[in-house]
Specification:
It contains six helices and eleven strands. The protein is α/β, with parallel strands linked by helices and about 240 residues long.
């Protein structure tokens, strides 16, 4: 079987090309195009190794009419953050927070996480950019070092996912999605394929486990969120 031809994807806008170029023709950014491994599919009716895949389950449909109460929201205690969130965090939701380096994304989210933990909520904060001591130093500076939140420095998504499957939580903060690494994807952290696959796995866990997920994202020099454009469509809100 012939090896599939590689494709090249722009990390700024997600545009795909058949060959590498120094400048993306879609968004105009320089040096953002990188090779992305092409995933081969055995076909819609076949599983791994060519074996017949298990049949899918029937999807249940409901009438358009009906009533449902709005989802409960958990205020973070930071008035402006709660305002842009529509009153607070929603269970099983995913929020992407972007901004320039040093603008205060981690500081703001650490304050919100500490406030929720202090109110008796189970909060987990995963830092992929800073060490535990660095986060603790910021917490002491903010006066929230006594907050009972769970703190970890990790980038391996397999380990993080296994932990989240076993640990109940009301809020999980991932700082940042560009540092997360999935060992099943043959590319470096921060590439289009890694960001897309990592975000999908974390959002899947948030929906199935019922915790609110906040992803910190980097931005380009033009102020746009870095990574594949599909990332913005995967989450419930972009701040």
């Amino acid at each position: 079987m012939a090896k599939p031809a590689p494709r090249y994807v722009c990390a700024a806008c997600g545009a795909a090309f058949a060959k590498w170029a120094g400048r993306c023709e879609a968004c105009g950014e320089w040096n953002t195009i990188a090779e992305e491994p092409v995933e081969t599919s055995p076909g819609p009716l076949l599983g791994k190794g060519g074996a017949k895949a298990a049949p899918g389950r029937k999807v249940a449909f409901v009438p358009l009419t009906g009533s449902a109460a709005p989802p409960p929201r958990t205020p973070t205690g930071i008035a402006e953050l709660d305002r842009v969130l529509g009153g607070g965090l929603v269970e099983a939701s995913a929020v992407l927070v972007g901004g320039d380096p040093g603008i205060g994304k981690s500081t703001l989210l650490l304050q919100a996480a500490a406030a929720l933990a202090g109110a008796g909520r189970q909060v987990l904060y995963v830092s992929g950019e800073e060490s535990i001591d660095q986060v603790r130093l910021r917490a002491r500076r903010l006066g929230v070092a006594a907050a009972p939140l769970g703190l970890a420095a990790a980038v391996n998504l397999r380990d993080i996912a296994a932990t989240l499957e076993q640990t109940p939580a009301a809020l999980v903060v991932i700082d940042s999605i560009q540092t997360m690494w999935l060992d099943t994807i043959d590319s470096a952290p921060g590439t289009v394929s890694q960001v897309r696959a990592g975000a999908f796995e974390l959002i899947r866990l948030a929906k199935s486990r019922g915790f609110a997920l906040v992803l910190v994202g980097h931005v380009t020099k033009d102020g746009a969120l870095a990574g594949p454009r599909v990332l913005e469509h995967m989450v419930d809100a972009v701040l």
